[in-house]
């Protein structure tokens, strides 16, 4: 580190500056970060000194003013600014295909070097910034810090993408694990992998179902981050069973959602032996229990009667919709060349997405059936019976977060395409899945960082409603909102009713026959449009925005800004579980406890990489622990409750080998009971003694004894989550 010096021997070289600049990104700003008076040997070293300082603090730099000695090209002084210095000049946005973020905030932080006899000395320094600084985990994304030091380019042990100074998060992270897992049997490798993940991640969940021969039939898993993501974005769930990508020909079924950047987010994944109602019921119950028994508002699936039956049982209050992308894919296989007929496609797409009311749909459907004589076609008749699950005439008021749109549906349906092939083992697939999830989260992380760096450039500079939207919404959602606002300009309107504060308008898009009815309450700022775009997507439509313009509203009412689309979508993780009843039963206690664990874990994640934040975290946790002890003593509860006493393990486990799954075609369709299903008969004495025994070092163990899968009913599931070595009370049938 450069220091305050006045003599030549103390001057630091470029290599010294670069060496200190490659320090860990979590290093905190110390007393020696006052650059005033520090000296280096050259202009390059001056830049490196300030850039290293900027990397430690959390901002990017750019070159500023240069002054020369009179009558020469020799530099007299050089300034370097924070990259957010000044303000962006107005520019013509109409011709620009790519609009960059407006990151300038008028920041005054800078440093000035003077060149005296070949020594570059800091003569002016302002460390004050007027914007948020980058977190330690974000510093590698700063523009002036994007480089990979040679000393780290070939270090496979570096943990995390932030430590190595470049964006790709999952580079070589799983190589060693993949090499070590394939030495034993596939099932044992899978269980060992799940156990190791559970040891690393206290919120990791998995459950395995085996048949009477102790062969794995179905399994589901998700990591702790997926649980936190589900708390924020679990209102919409896409469930796809059209993929088979492993050597056992099992059905691969990912649970996918959409985050605040309109990107795919993974909530978990399952492998299933068959597509029976029983198997889907087991899977949905396992998923629901892993997510704190909070069902989604909407679930989108492919057309499968067994899935529909299971959803009615497990998610009775969830709206079930069929994925339109899967329906369009199925048409070609059902009608062959007819699917390429332009008129047929027009009529079918009109039934799919072009009808506003049920009567319009019925007329269009009858025309389609009669014109092409497909009234006796079994697939079309079955599709008609479930029309309320796929036609916009019946589903336009269902919130889907845009997943049902063609562009989103295709990306969601193809989320696992190319991940593996028909010779991929279960363990290798799970590892490949982890890489895919890491890549998704890296993309989300990058978008979060871009949103923090500045607001989107607005096409209407003076628009108050666009200014609010650019500050609140993420970049992707802002663009969708901006399209709607610009679309409102191309609409005409007629006011039908105006009574006190209630107003009714007809709004028509130019060049279209579509007419929408908009009702507006000027007192409460409540608005309703017959197109129901806000109900389905969560963003106001052009018709509603047109009425806002007529009534001179320059801000989006708070009730029409969904938190899930904002930059603060993940702020505050307490959510729906924070208001527990005063007197809770065992199930409520466990739900509340796990909710608190997730909240604390989220705070700890934020403190990573910052010494001061870690110290604050430790301090507050110690204070919290002391206050809890004092409260317990005040209430005279007696001795502290020992949660581990009732579930302590003694003795040795009776080990039963878990076998790899048979190929799907070789197994019967008999019903398999899983860990989440309660046993109807009393367990045998041998089973009870095995459940109380301690884990042994045998290589393969029965899931109900040693898998640590949290695969019981809700209370047992949460209990085993907290104490992974506790015996399970039910056994696989």
From TrEMBL:
Keywords: Metal-binding, Zinc, Zinc-finger. The keyword Cytoplasm does not apply. InterPro entries: FAR1_DNA_bnd_dom, MULE_transposase_dom, Znf_PMZ, Znf_SWIM. Residues 670-682 have a biased composition (Basic residues). Residues 666-733 are annotated as: Disordered. The keyword Transcription does not apply. Pfam families: FAR1, MULE, SWIM. Residues 514-552 form the SWIM-type domain. Residues 706-717 have a biased composition (Polar residues). PANTHER family: OS01G0519700 PROTEIN, PROTEIN FAR1-RELATED SEQUENCE 5-LIKE. This is Protein FAR1-RELATED SEQUENCE 5 isoform X5. It comes from Ziziphus jujuba (Chinese jujube). The lineage of its organism: Eukaryota, Viridiplantae, Streptophyta, Embryophyta, Tracheophyta.
